[in-house]
Amino acid sequence: MALLAVLTLSATAVAVRARQSGVTAATIHPLTTAVGSAAGGWAPSFTDATGQPARWDPCVAIHYVLATAGAPASARADVNGALQRLTAASGLNFVDDGPTSELPRRERAAYDPRRWGKRWAPLLIAWAGAADTDVPLTGGREGVTMAVAVATATGGSIVTGEVVLNTDLPLPSGFGPGATAGEVLLHELGHAVGLGHVDDPDQIMYPMTNPGLAEYGAGDRAGLVAIGAPAGCHRAPTPRPLQVSEPIG
Ligand SMILES: [Zn+2]
To answer: How many whole angstroms from 201 Cα to the centroid of ligand 1?
Structure first.
């Protein structure tokens, strides 16, 4: 299959460690970024010591904010289209908390009560160029995702994240054939909900864009079922300050 080699989709996974005490070491399963095979056509972004994927709580809506500065006029429509596809495949529900002036950054606080109240920071979906952010957008990356996963006694919980689309490498709007903003959003949002890369070019989670329509493939869908509503509720830990490590991979 011909690949659009210059249109690399990349994700930066961020492992986190709780800073405060109150959780004993015995109840913490270390989270690692998943490596290796993509059994069943998909791979998780993070796994705990038992091999379970880190995931959001599908029984609670995922709040997101849109950083619209620098975004194309089609940004909101593309986000809506991507989230509709993601919800249809995963059962995860999303709530738009509106526009934000916040810029993406590597050390964004997962818990920022002065800005967001006493909750985990909402998922930030942003359009930015390399000059706007320290999130790594070099190397031809169309998009970067930094998901924050917290280790808990019942497995890894993804509690917030950042999806950044690179405005230095603009793409056509929509979900048509070839590289599109819609395809990059489906890929990066896949990372944000817990999917990692696979080596099958027919899947959206392949690390490069492909010539086909921007739709989740069978492997992507299997992964979205495994981390989505069919997997049951997965209560998030109490919001608290976190020390976020350097990006991995
Ligand atoms: Zn990726």
So the answer is: 12
Angle at the Cα of 55 from the Cα atoms of 54 and 59, rounded to 5 degrees: 150
Q: How far apart are CA 159 and CA 169, in angstroms?
A: 29
CA atoms of 100 and 156, how far apart (whole Å) = 28
Q: Quick one: pLDDT at residue 48?
A: 80
Pair of tokens at residue 190: 């896949």
Q: Span 14-244: which CATH code? A: 3.40.390.10
Look up the pTM and report it: 0.87
Which is nearest to 137 in space by CA: 162, 107, 168? 168
Q: Are 144 and 164 in contact (CB under 8 A)?
A: yes
Residue 188 Cα to ligand 1 middle (Å): 6
Give the pLDDT confidence score for residue 245 in this predicted structure.
54
What's the CA gap between 217 and 207, in Å, rounded?
14
The residue extents of the domains of the chain are: 14-244
